[in-house]
Amino acid sequence: MHSFCHMGGHEEVELCQGLQRLKQEHELLRKQKQYLFELAQAIGGDAGVQNWKERLLALRKNVQVFINELDPHSEREEGVLFPMMAQYIGRTSGPIAVMEYEHDQAKQRITSFLAKTAELPETVDRDSAMALADKIIQAYHILTEHFMKEENVLFPMAERLLSDEEKEELAEKISQI
Questions:
Q1: Cβ-proximal residues to 153 (8 Å cutoff; 6+ apart), any chain
Q2: What ranges in the chain are assigned the alpha helix state H?
Q3: What confidence category does residue 22 fall into, taking pLDDT thresholds of 50, 70 and 90?
Q4: What is the spatial distance between Cα 122 and Cα 66, in angstroms, rounded to a whole number?
Q5: Which residues contact residue 155 at a Cβ distance below 8 angstroms, ignoring those fewer than 6 apart?
Q6: Does pTM surpass 0.70?
């Protein structure tokens, strides 16, 4: 069964099972990262707080939950989808290179936040706390743009490029990660 899609406009392209799954995973990740964003933005907001350690640790706990969902999702894309698409459009420049770069940028910030909050001093002042929370705010903005690009550009492109056999292989491989 072939689904044809038109190049113009933002018509909803019907995605195959594997791509649909990746897109649906964005929904859960979106909710989680929105919550992280709100927690991170609240850090530094209350002038009455002298020590921000507890708030940072609460943010850290939620970031770890998020990463446990984000990592396998990224692996499904980087380990399965991107290489399949790269056969058609290459990997060193163009959309795949951009997607991988954005994954790296978001992960660097999250990893840095986790590393720097692993051993906090007894007291964390407002400026230090805000600087740390800012890494999560930056990751949030990168991933927000990134998900939109995948949903509006990359997934529809994959739907057009991949053969029916490849789409079956995609669904099978990502279900194993």
A1: 95
A2: 17-42, 53-76, 82-89, 95-116, 126-149, 155-161, 164-174
A3: very high
A4: 25
A5: 13, 15, 19, 22, 23
A6: yes
